[in-house]
Specification:
The protein is an all-alpha fold. The chain is 76% helix and 1% strand. It contains nine helices and two strands; from the N terminus they run ααααααααββα. Strands 1-2 form a two-stranded antiparallel ribbon. The longest helix has 49 residues.
């Protein structure tokens, strides 16, 4: 128990001395995670859509060639960036681009560090989101795509108006999951000198050697951020999912199911109008049959 009290006192001492630096690190972490997640989602959306463009043997050979080439390029991109650690990706992008371009492309100053960090985290997130978007699109019933084509919709119209709005609900949990992962994974950006929450911790302990106490503050900070955003994302998912129970429309007083309401200007529903028309024809037929004997008697009398 004494050790916990001592740890708490050391943490309070560290926080009192460096709270502004810790908060600045948290701000950099959240900013990088938000921007990189948004850009990564855009990259993943484009890759997922391109990877699911359909083609058949009846399509022109040029179209089939380019679609297959796109799928190969997307697959290589996904496998490379999902199969290597982000810390090595940061090293290769930050130090590799100047090496291969003879220092024509370099990340200079604080702006260069931000640009390199955003590129690394965004590309890594995009690789994961590409497969998430592809899975979300493929999870939609193929019959809906066939129905959209049957009424003359193009592939772009089908994707934007039918498939993607439904796939978004399936994709949203993974978007939130990637954002929470990025909050933690931004800690590897210290390898290129980017100062975020974990980078602040490394700078502070380099002066006072209170490594464990500062690490405890870091742990509580990361845990707080992830718990808060996990709660927010669950609320958003619950709102998009709608109510857990549904009432039948026919049980509602103003249910507007076909055949159960009358439009103030258009009259009954189409089914009712057809029924009324058929009943009117039958009534006219019966009336004509009743009038037929009378007409025959009158003709005979003349």
């Amino acid at each position: 128990m004494e050790k916990f009290i001592e740890l708490g006192q050391d943490m309070a001492q560290l926080w009192a001395a460096h709270w502004d630096r810790y908060l600045a690190g948290i701000g950099n972490t959240l900013a990088l995670a938000v921007v990189a997640t948004v850009i990564g989602c855009v990259i993943g959306l484009l890759c997922g859509i391109l990877n699911t463009i359909p083609y058949t043997k009846r399509d022109p050979i040029i179209k089939r060639f380019f679609l297959k080439l796109i799928r190969v390029v997307v697959r290589i991109y996904v496998e490379v960036f999902r199969g290597t650690p982000m810390v090595l990706q940061a090293v290769f992008i930050y130090y590799g681009l100047p090496f291969f371009t003879n220092e024509q492309v370099m990340f200079r100053g604080n702006g260069g560090l931000w640009l390199a960090a955003i590129i690394v985290v965004s590309i890594n997130t995009g690789a994961y989101m590409a497969e998430t978007v592809r899975g979300g699109i493929l999870s939609i019933d193929p019959g809906q795509t066939e129905g959209a084509k049957a009424i003359g919709m193009t592939h772009v119209q089908t994707m934007t108006s039918v498939i993607l709005p439904q796939a978004f609900r399936n994709i949203l949990p993974q978007v939130g999951n990637n954002f929470i992962i990025n909050i933690k994974d931004t800690s590897v950006m210290f390898v290129i000198g980017f100062v975020e929450f974990f980078g602040v911790h490394r700078n502070i302990v380099g002066n006072n050697y209170m490594y464990f106490q500062s690490a405890a503050i870091e742990m509580l900070g990361y845990l707080t951020m992830t718990l808060v955003f996990s709660f927010v994302l669950r609320r958003v998912e619950r709102l998009l999912a709608g109510p857990s129970s549904y009432k039948l429309a026919a049980a509602l007083p103003r249910a507007m199911a076909a055949g159960t309401y009358r439009h103030p200007k258009k009259g009954h529903a189409p089914e009712d109008r057809n029924r009324e028309y058929r009943e009117r024809l039958k009534k006219e037929e019966r009336e004509r049959l009743r009038q037929a004997p009378k007409q025959g008697q009158n003709r005979g009398g003349r």
